Amino acid sequence: MSGSIIAYAAAGVLGLSLLGWRFKQDPKTYGSAGWLKPWTAMRARLFKRKGILVGDWTGLLPVYYEDTHAISFGPSGSGKGTCTILPNLMLPGFAFAIDPGGENTAVAIKSWRKAGYEVCVINPFGMFGDKPWSLPRHGFNPLDILDADSETFASEALLIAELLIPRSGKEDGSSLYFKNAATSFLQAVLMHVISTMPKSECHLGTVYALVNGDADEWETLIKAMVANQAGDGFVSKTASSMERREEQAPAEFSAVMSTVQQDLVWLGDKVVRESLKRSDVDFSILKGRNKSGKPLKGGIISVVLPLEYNESHAAIPRLALGCAIWEMQRAPLAREKVLFLIDEAAALGKITRFPNWLATLRKYQAVLWPIFQNIGQVKALYGEQWQTFIANCGLRQFIGVSDLETAEYVSKLLGEQTTHSRSTNAQGQVSSSETRRALLTVDEILHFDETRQLVFIRNLEAQPLKKTPYWERPELRGRFNRNPYQSRKSPVTLGAGLKGMWGDLYHLLVCLLAPHPAAAFLYLGLLGVTIHKLIGVLS
């Protein structure tokens, strides 16, 4: 009898707890900000295992995002690679990755090979070529996308020229003028090379030699370009303009040429020029088929650079990104979504077309995912466009915050809540009232739990998700290499099974309670009947 009473009491407590959990309402008198409810997340299909793996709700209950583009922020050491980038690179599918330092590629390539994916690694300096990583050393020729007979020849040459001439986001006045003039001239040189030279010489090494030639070589080049009517006369007109500039404004001419030469100085290494002469990379694998039309299980293109060349040679990943997106915009279109993961995006400089890509590439199944260290980097590069830049990303992920500007931005983004305040007067009487408060203050954000991240998905409320390293995910066990920057293997973690069981149980409860609050009564009633029957059988 006492056992029955205890069982019924336990069931009652459990039922009341679930009801309280499901029906809890937060006051909204002075502000309605709050954390995302699990049933809202369920209805928004955030627990459907598809898309970007954002983090874990609790235990090992992963939250996914599948929609438009994403943007992440996190300083060095915040877990961007271990908890965010690598788990996603090892998910099934198609991806283009910019990987400064090569760490993520070296760790994940084992997973890609085991899955039978087509893998291309643009690796001009031959990073991690030894075992167990054995990264290939593929090259690519960005001028392969140019066709002198194409109706869009000039437009495609402009794309390459823009990616070759870096922007800092701070150009104005004369500096902006010289950057634009250098871009136009380089566009004409590219078109001249493609339209007049044999295929074997149509590469950036030839362009580098032409713009750095001596006086005699310059005269030969400019005369040939003036006579070249490619691009409906664009090459000839641009060359004539440069010729007049040399005669009438020599200082301006020198500034334009100096800009071109300085922006191509990274081509001075033979190893780089040789890498950009080859055509090893088939960018069409991102769309699910290779050039022969064979369907693929998955396709990965990764760009790897040593950290010391991350900024000086940023044109290489910029060019690879531009070529990949150019391919995505050509028929046949991709069969499924392709993730473009751009780590340390600020090192690429300002890509003029990036805001437009964010607005239009969804139609082509491309999901852009730039990763910055803080809000200030986006502001510095894109100026007045920075808010539009971020607004076009349906996932805004703050993996860690260590600077005041980003903390203030996140605090405002979280909004204000209505909370209860208690006060005691001189007579010792206690009173309670509602008041307004930031959901998280700047100070609280700067000292936020290091094991959690703040995530905003579409127009839903924010949620502090767990950061789970890739080696703690059971589904990834045995699918990754040792980190080449660490002498030891990934740590062995205990309790992953328990975390997974707790995540599954939590998910089950949310599934039961998510449809409607009234469902809670039905399910709890069924639970009570079940317990009653069970006690009857046992007694």
Report on the architecture of this protein.
- The strands form 3 sheets. This protein has a 9-stranded mixed β-sheet with strand order 5-6-4-7-8-3-9-12-13, sandwiched between helices.
- It is elongated.
- Helix 3 runs parallel beside helix 4 (103-114).
- It is α/β, with parallel strands linked by helices and 539 residues long.
- The chain has 19 helices and 13 strands.
- It has 3 domains: 1-29 and 507-539; 31-140 and 280-421 and 431-493, Rossmann fold (3-Layer(aba) Sandwich); 142-272.
Provide a short characterization of the protein structure:
With 539 residues, this protein is of the alpha/beta class. The protein has 3 domains: 1-29 and 507-539; 31-140 and 280-421 and 431-493, Rossmann fold, CATH 3.40.50.300; 142-272. It has helices at 2-23, 38-43, 80-89, 103-114, 153-164, 173-196, 204-211, 215-226, 234-248, 250-263, 270-275, 315-328, 354-360, 375-382, 386-391, 404-414, 442-446, 496-513, 517-538; strands at 52-56, 62-65, 69-73, 94-100, 118-122, 299-305, 338-342, 366-372, 393-398, 416-424, 430-438, 452-457, 463-466.
What key attributes describe this structure?
elongated, Rossmann fold, 43% helix, alpha/beta, two-stranded antiparallel sheet
CATH superfamily of the largest domain: P-loop containing nucleotide triphosphate hydrolases
Average pLDDT level: 91
Helix content: 40-55%
Low confidence ranges:
none
Q: Find the structural class using helix and strand composition.
A: alpha/beta
Number of helices: 19
Using DSSP, what is the number of strands? 13
Shape: elongated
CATH topology of the largest domain: Rossmann fold
